[in-house]
Design goal:
- It holds the Pfam family PCuAC.
- This is DUF1775 domain-containing protein.
- Keywords: Signal.
- It comes from Rhizobium pisi.
- The protein is mostly beta strands.
- It folds into 2 domains: about 150 residues, Uncharacterised protein YcnI-like PF07987, DUF1775 (Immunoglobulin-like, Sandwich), CATH 2.60.40.2230; about 120 residues, Immunoglobulin-like, CATH 2.60.40.1890.
- About 5% of the residues lie in helices and about 45% in strands.
- It has a 16-stranded mixed sheet that branches.
- The radius of gyration is 23 Å and the shape is elongated.
- The N terminus is likely disordered.
Length: about 325
């Protein structure tokens, strides 16, 4: 009986191994989770990274954005630095009445550590604009594993079979919009969790005092369903004669809350976590606002919806812990 049971387990193990191997072989390349997108729609383009480079961990992912995929906004990833390379579009695009000629042309997630044993996704929000139905947009990807680089950039000539390519670029096939379809710009999520390219709104948030500090104007941005990252903002005024420091932030709405900074230099936008917190000088006012300092909510349990509030606990070096409610505004910040 023992022999039969052992043999059964071994057989089932082999079946599982063969099945996993077949599945890995079927999706061994970098691909999109959803390989189709509708004309003139705003989407979450989700790249799937199934493995490392010859067993090595992935440390950097670079994605070049094709013409016709515009107003791109990458989703930050915990433990990774983020860069957005900006440049000129070949054409001019309409963005709610504004004529836009420049924008993100490459996204880079850097200094991460994704083991070859694991799988992950990298998400970019953007709009498909001015692209004919039936066209396939190629997104060349550079997967870097330390000193080893794999380029997923091969594109088959029109009418050719792409299955024979060794390192095909991820493709997004553009399909015609349905008669009653709609553009999702009105719920267009958050770039860097709503950080970039938006003016801060003026919510009627509560004012909380703690020691010499006065915290006001707390708000967050509404999120797309299923989006795991959110952003939060507020203002701190230090009325005292000594510096204080925001050390950490927690919230029951998220698995982790980080303090981030965004800086743009030479058309490159960089975001980094401030692990040592933020100093608030005596007599000064510090603003956490879109495109600058902000809170990053990781592993959000339920996407933030307009009209809701997000509770947070701020911990300061001198003023101690402060509870604050962030009002959730529309994703557009209106």
């Amino acid at each position: 009986m023992k022999t039969i049971k052992t043999q059964t387990i071994k057989t089932l193990g082999l079946i599982a191994l063969f099945s996993a191997t077949a599945a890995a072989g079927a999706e061994a390349h970098v691909t999109f989770l959803d390989k189709q997108a509708t004309q003139e729609s705003t989407i979450l383009a989700t790249l799937q990274l199934p493995h490392g480079c010859d067993g090595k961990a992935t440390t950097e992912v670079r994605v070049k954005l094709p013409e016709g995929f515009v107003f791109a906004k990458p989703q930050p990833k915990a433990g990774w630095e983020l860069e957005v390379i900006k440049g000129d579009y070949q054409k001019t695009y309409d963005n709610h009445g504004d004529k836009v000629k420049t924008g993100a042309i490459e996204i880079r997630w850097k200094n991460g550590n994704l083991s070859d044993d694991f799988y992950d996704t990298f998400v970019i929000q953007g709009k498909v604009s001015g692209v004919e139905a039936g066209t396939s947009l190629a997104f060349p990807v550079m997967q870097m594993c330390g000193d080893t680089v794999t380029a997923w950039d091969q594109v088959a000539p029109a009418g050719s079979d792409a299955h024979g390519l060794k390192s095909p670029a991820p493709l997004l096939k553009i399909v015609a919009s349905e008669e009653h379809g709609h553009d999702h710009d009105d719920m267009a999520g958050m770039d860097m969790s709503g950080m970039a390219g938006m003016a801060a709104a003026a919510p009627a948030g509560e004012t909380v005092k703690a020691g010499d500090l006065e915290i006001s104007g707390g708000f967050a941005k509404a999120m797309l369903p299923g989006q795991p990252v959110g952003g939060g903002f507020f203002t701190v005024k230090n009325n005292g004669h000594a510096e204080d420091r925001l050390i950490s932030v927690t919230s029951p709405a998220a698995g982790e809350v980080q303090i981030h900074e965004m800086v743009t230099k030479d058309n490159v936008m960089r975001m980094r976590q401030l692990k040592d917190g933020i100093a608030i000088a005596a007599g000064e006012t510090l603003k956490l606002e879109p495109g600058n300092l902000h809170l990053m909510f990781q592993k959000v349990k339920t996407p933030f919806k307009q009209g809701d509030t997000v509770p947070v606990t701020l911990t300061f070096e001198k003023a101690g812990k402060v509870d604050l409610a962030l009002q959730v505004l529309s994703a557009q910040g209106k």
